[in-house]
Design brief:
264 residues; D-Maltodextrin-Binding Protein, domain 2; 2 domains; 7-stranded mixed beta sheet; 14 strands
């Protein structure tokens, strides 16, 4: 049975419990001696990734057994309604295993494929960004907004790694980079959180999965920003898993200028 929108407060509280549970597992493993495995896609994974996701799944299955769950580390659990959770226990595992506290736990709740709750939780610093169903965006309970910068010449551009881009994508990214004030790499989900707070203005990414992006959509859009693919289309979270391209910008005007360069 599908829940009514009036349960949004319940779902937000549940999302917070998921972040709490993941953080309790992740913190003891940070800057510890870890056994690091390499997955089929050549990305690293640790016991912290797997146990954190397992804990979140257990809570969801106990509280909302009819909800679907899509996560990075375990198979998709189909639900019988319109709601499903999208989980990334540690986004930025390479940062995590190198002792850099710029990774995060990503939690999204989607209704009919549209993320309506998004949490980015940094369990070491204690920072928790939330995009809620009521249209708010916050950091630890305080409202946040994206920047008012509308000029590419003033914009701060981030991406995880240019090595993730194919040659054509790298060429258009370089074109965008040359028009912006600053380009930096390597912050994974933390760059999106900084965009929601107004410190970063554009983030572009390629070759992602649903769990890499779902939490960022309600957070950034509720904070005043815009998130699409490089063609300007809304990102899909309906089980396709792969997201070929993504761009988040502080406001529609800046987004339009960046898209023009990515498409030109």
């Amino acid at each position: 049975m599908d829940e009514a929108p009036g349960d949004s407060g319940r779902y937000l509280a549940l999302a917070g419990r998921l972040a709490d549970a993941a953080g309790e597992i992740i913190r003891p493993h940070f800057r510890a001696d870890l056994n690091i495995e390499t997955k089929a896609d050549e990305s690293p994974v640790t016991i912290a990734d797997r146990e954190a996701e397992r804990a979140m799944r257990a809570i969801i299955e106990a509280e909302c057994p009819e909800h679907g769950i899509r996560g990075e580390e375990f198979p998709f659990k189909p639900g019988d309604g319109e709601w499903h959770w999208i989980l990334d226990p540690i986004d930025g595992t390479k940062l995590f295993i190198t002792g850099i506290p710029l990774f995060g736990t990503l939690i999204a709740l989607a209704r009919n494929g549209i993320p309506v709750i998004g949490i980015v939780d940094q369990p070491i610093s204690g920072e928790r960004w939330i995009g809620a169903m009521d249209g708010s965006a916050s950091l630890n309970g305080e409202a946040i907004r994206t920047s008012g910068r509308e000029s590419l010449a003033e914009a701060r551009l981030f991406t995880t790694s240019i090595r993730m881009y194919n040659p054509d994508q790298a060429a258009v990214f370089q074109r965008l980079s040359e028009e912006t004030a600053m380009t930096r790499q390597g912050m994974d989900c933390y760059a999106f959180a900084m965009l929601a707070m107004g410190f970063v203005d554009i983030v572009t990414e390629t070759n992602l999965n649903e769990w890499d992006m779902a939490a960022h959509v309600p957070l950034i859009e509720n904070a005043g920003g815009m998130v699409t693919d490089w063609q300007g289309k809304p990102l899909r979270f309906d089980g396709q898993v792969e997201i070929e391209t993504a761009i988040a910008a502080a406001n529609p005007a800046l987004h339009a200028q960046a898209l023009a360069l990515l498409q030109g």
